[in-house]
Design a protein that fits this description.
Blueprint (H helix, E strand, L loop, with lengths): L2 H8 L3 H17 L4 E5 L2 E6 L2 E9 L2 E6 L11 E2 L6 E5 L7 H13 L19
Antiparallel strand pairs: 1-2, 2-3, 3-4, 4-6, 5-6
Helix pairs in contact: 1-2
Length: about 130
C-alpha cells in the first residue's frame, strides 16, 4: 500500500482508523492493478488514470465513494453529487460487508465513466465501459 495512504489511515481516530485500514486492504486486494495515492487530500484508487474508488473522513463517518457507483444498481450505495458517483458511509468497522465491497469493486472495474477527461469535455461524462 502507498505510504501516504497508510499515514492517512494512521492519522484517524481509533474507530475511523480501523474502518480506513479495512477499506484500504480490501480495495487493494480487489483492485490489485490500480494505482493508489492521496488525491485532493484523500486515498483514491485509479485505473488507467481514471478515479475509481476512494474514501474520506467526514464529520461523523468515513465515506466510501465509487465514482461510477450510480451505474452499479446497488441498493446500499447512495447517489452523491450531480454526476455518476455513489457512496456508503461507515461509523464502525462492523458495518463493512466485505462481500458487498468485493462485488462493488468488481463492478467498478467493469463499469466506468470517464472522469479523467471531464474537464477537457467541459463537464460531460462519457461511458468507458
Amino acid at each position: 500500500m502507498n505510504k501516504d495512504i497508510q499515514t492517512y489511515n494512521e492519522s484517524q481516530s481509533n474507530g475511523d482508523r480501523d474502518i480506513c485500514t479495512i477499506l484500504s486492504e480490501e480495495i487493494t486486494r480487489g483492485l490489485p492493478e490500480a494505482e493508489n495515492k492521496i488525491w485532493h487530500a484523500h486515498p483514491v484508487w485509479f485505473l488507467d488514470g481514471n478515479p475509481i474508488v476512494g474514501y474520506s473522513k467526514l464529520k461523523n463517518c468515513i465515506r466510501l465513494l465509487f465514482w461510477s457507483g450510480q451505474s452499479f444498481d446497488e441498493e446500499h450505495l447512495q447517489k452523491e453529487g450531480k454526476f455518476k458517483a455513489a457512496e456508503i458511509r461507515y461509523t464502525s468497522p462492523e458495518q463493512i460487508d466485505k462481500k458487498d465491497l468485493s462485488r462493488w469493486l468488481n463492478k467498478s472495474r467493469e463499469i466506468q465513466w470517464d472522469y479523467k477527461n471531464i474537464v477537457k469535455r467541459k463537464g460531460v461524462l462519457e461511458r468507458l465501459k
